Known about the structure:
Elements: H1 2-39, H2 41-44, H3 60-63, H4 66-77, H5 92-112, H6 123-127
Helix pairs in contact: 1-5, 4-5
Amino acid sequence: MVDHRITVFTAFLLLFVDVHASSNIADDRLQSQQFFDSFCISCHGMEKSKGDLRLDQIDVQKWNAPSLLNDIHTAIESGEMPPEDAPRLPEPDQLKALQKVLRNQLRLLAEKQKPGMLKRLSRVEYQNT
Length: 129
């Protein structure tokens, strides 16, 4: 009976953690979208799209694209974005919060990534190396 309770409790706990993690990801995406709407849309929106980057609609597919998230994170970290002549500049703590969200999402995507497949070299390939 005790083993059954532990099993049920463990299953419930795992389900709760998974649901909680999913809601955190959705909250992070929403928080990022609000930041982009407030500070980035004037230059990276539908009307004006500098650098061929539109941040007015970050959907799930784009939110799961490590290259896009890494580019955004790198631009913020290097000080390239937001530019000093931007119409509205965020507070430093807002930028740090966005960077934290982007780092967390990049870490989650890296953890989900499947390992690459190793390929053995043929004799001809080995001789040519």
